[in-house]
Amino acid sequence: MAIPNQRRPGGLAPVRRASTVDLITEALKEAIMNGQLRPGSALRETELSQQLNVSRGPLREALQRLCTEGIAVSRGRRGLAVASMEASDIVEVHFLRKDIALKAIARLHTVDDDIYDQALDSLRQLLHRMNGAVDDEHARQLGDSYHVFHQTLTDLAGSQRLSRFMRTLLVETRLCTYTVYTDYKIHSSLVEEHEDIWKALRRKNFNEVEQLLESHFQNEIEHLTGEPEEDEQLEHSVPHKPQPLDPIDIAW
Fold this sequence. Notes:
The chain is mostly helical and 252 residues long. The chain has helices at 20-33, 45-52, 56-69, 87-106, 113-136, 139-155, 160-180, 190-202, 206-225, and strands at 2-4, 15-17, 42-43, 72-74, 80-82, 184-187, 233-236. Strand 4 and strand 5 form a beta hairpin.
C-alpha cells in the first residue's frame, strides 16, 4: 500500500510505504465498518495486539488516531471504546458529509475530462452493484457500494484533505447505523437517489447534483432518526458482541 507524498519541484512525487500504524488503523476501521467492533466495544490493547499480531506501541498510536478522528473515545480508567452516536451526532455527521460533498462538487469543473469520464464509469459500475444488491437483498453490498460511491465522488475533486475527511465521516456513518439498529439496515431507495445523481454528473449539471445531494443527506437523517418503512429496508445480521480480529500481514 503506497501513500503519495508531497511532490518535489521538477520531479516525481516520492512514495512512502504504509507504516505499521497505518495498517493497524485501517484494520481497526475495517473491523468497525463490518461490525466486528460495535459502538461501545472496549478497545483493550492486550487483546487487540494479540489478535492483530502487532506490538502495543504502534497499536497505541493507531488507537490515538481513532480518538483524534472521533471514532474511538476515552472512558477514563476503563480505557478506550468505539464511539456511539447520539441523534445529534447523526445530524452533525450528515451535515458535515453534505458540506464536504458540496465543496468537492464545486471543484469538479476543473477536473480533466479523461479523469472525469473514468470516475463516471466507476460510479456507474457502483450503481450496477447497488442494483444487484437490492435484487439479491444483500444489505452489506448495498451499503459498501454506497460508501465507495461517495468516497469516489469526493476523491474526484483532487483534494487529499476533503478525501481524508470523507473517509472518517463514512466510518462514523456506519457507526450511526450500528448505534440505531441492532443489525445492519439500509433502505433500498438509495439506488434511485444515486442514479439521479449520476445522471446529473453525466450532464455536468453541478447545480442539480448539489440539490440532489442536499435532498439525499436530509433523507438519510430522517431514516436514521425517524421511523423508516420496513418494506424499504434491507437487513444484514451482525454479531452483537465484539468478534476477534484477523492478524495483520505486514510484508515489506
